[in-house]
């Protein structure tokens, strides 16, 4: 019996909300709150006849702490699920602290305006000291650890697929398969085809920022940074086939390097088709990925936001996308003194997801772990206070829940390795 406030009603949130409504014995009451209330009302109306979860809706601009505090005070939830954008992570964490409520999200903090001088100064210092230049990192949210601990609250960071399930796979490998882990390769393959020359599978602004940034990986205790898309490998993915994949910086590398300190190398690869890369390079070259406002005919516009308005809404890709995703982790390490390798992954079918919840697999593979993370907190399976990432908790009940609610694991004890 729990009351949950869900902030955001986009592609990922919509799947998480569908899934919460499939577990009404835990999610007895949910409030869907977002900037655009009409989207929340539409989803609530669609789900109400199919569930016994009691659904209400609200309008909130989560950029404003006082608005989130007022909403939490009036709704009195047991948990706030932040499935809006990473820009809102800190304001929602502040509101949770002010009201004494547990918090969770699916992506770590990054600022909307990367030209803000105060943020920029801290960012540039971090780039120099840490050695990677992505706009997002954990430092902002880890800085809340003591406050959450002292308040007796839990903040669960990054319960999507990657970050999220990939870290649970690491915790699982550490718990059941290895005494020591030497290397981790996270492989994110989308074998889906939506038929457009160019579209992003989730929020275009967040997605394009991520893939146009320099790549980096963790090796022997430090970051190695490389130009964007400059390390390419091919991999033959189960149920998908041969794909080109590129090394990217990804947020979970940072927490895994901290929590699995024996790992000598941690890398992240994502598959991209040539058409996607060609479009992205052109857009970048002409300045369309910029977050710096420009004046156009007397009106201020942010190029990447304008581009977002032109691109297909990721939520509209559902009916068109065919094919499968395959996301997982390959490990090398030792067990009982012997070298071994292990691969754990999930295969998810775009059309099956669409049939079940009306979304493609990218939103599905993020929304289901968001619900499962909430389930762990609400049912008392994960109780550690403070600010924590997924690999810091027991992976077993989480992976069992993922198996049950739509993202079953597959495994191999003799996988092909990535060189
Ligand atoms: P969408 O753009 O589809 O949805 C974002 C939602 O947040 C919209 O409903 C939007 O409202 C709402 N929102 C935005 N700003 C505010 C605000 N200030 N106050 C209240 N609501 C706001 O994004 P996605 O669903 O694709 O992504 C959601 C999150 O999931 C992101 O943080 C993304 O980074 C993360 N993600 C994580 C992945 C993982 O594997 N861990 C993978 C993919 C995504 P409006 O309708 O008004 O715009």
TrEMBL record:
Any idea where the Saccharopine dehydrogenase-like C-terminal domain is?
Answer: 160-407
Give the Saccharopine dehydrogenase NADP binding domain ranges.
4-156
InterPro entries attached here? Answer: NAD(P)-bd_dom_sf, Sacchrp_dh-like_C, Sacchrp_dh_NADP-bd
Query: Species name for this entry?
Result: Faecalibacterium longum
- Gene3D superfamilies attached to this UniProt entry: Dihydrodipicolinate Reductase, domain 2, NAD(P)-binding Rossmann-like Domain
The identity of this protein, by name, is Saccharopine dehydrogenase family protein
